[in-house]
Amino acid sequence: MNATQSKIALITGASSGIGFELTRCFARDGYGVIMTAHYPDKLTDAAQKIQQEFPEVLVDTIACDLSKDGAAQQLYEQVQQRGQQIDFLINNAGFGERGSFLETDLEKEIALIHLNIIALVSLTKFFVQDMVKRGSGKILQLGSVASFIPHPLLSVYAASKAFILSFTEALQVELKDTGISLTLLCPPPTETNFFEVAHMENTKIANSSQVQSAVDVAEEGYKGLMNGDARVLPTLVAKMYAAQGLTLPDSWNAAITKKQLENVKE
Length: 266
Known about the structure:
Layout: E1 8-12, H1 17-28, E2 32-37, H2 40-53, E3 59-63, H3 71-81, E4 88-91, H4 106-134, E5 137-142, H5 155-174, E6 180-185, H6 194-197, H7 214-227, E7 231-232, H8 236-247, H9 250-260
Parallel strand pairs: 1-2, 1-4, 2-3, 4-5, 5-6, 6-7
Helix pairs in contact: 1-7, 3-4, 4-5
Protein name: Short-chain dehydrogenase
GO molecular function, one term: oxidoreductase activity
Keywords: Oxidoreductase
């Protein structure tokens, strides 16, 4: 077994979208992968696809719902019980909820906060401590272009991604000279099941040319992670969003974004 084959990536939200494509990137380059996602059947199907495409690579799965209390710790403990060392942590899992805050479902938003923030912080805490002891490791955090701009009608999701931006940039300074790198990937609207879960299929943004390929986003995120880049804006659209967030007042950005998140027929 060579050095590449002995290293393992843990990818959350790995059964579809950006997470699945990131898994393919690791497997393509000979790294072992532990895929985790909420639904066991979908996870098994995704893992079988990866194994069929890359038969020589270790492909393992752990089904868990990271939006639940204690799930992140249970995931960490399962990895430890299997004796597997995680060299790459990919905190990809997350979802959104579109709608007026006055009308959206509070339970779903609490689950969103738990998955997008609490699980991400918990897994980072658990695995980065092991990485620091070894003096090596890489972490990819899934932010969003929503990290930079207020999003009316997607307020809780965008706030969770703003948290990830601040959290990751703080840790990048704290962990300097430890041998650990943290990379923040900030995708633009991307072809995944995000729009369906967030009830955004009929919005202007979901039906626009701004929607990018999950393959392209994952490939750029993977390259940035391996290079130890602090931040990855994977496409021109992502770079435009970030520039908009820096140059326009928040009130203007919020008004522009609200229009994009309205339904096509509104």
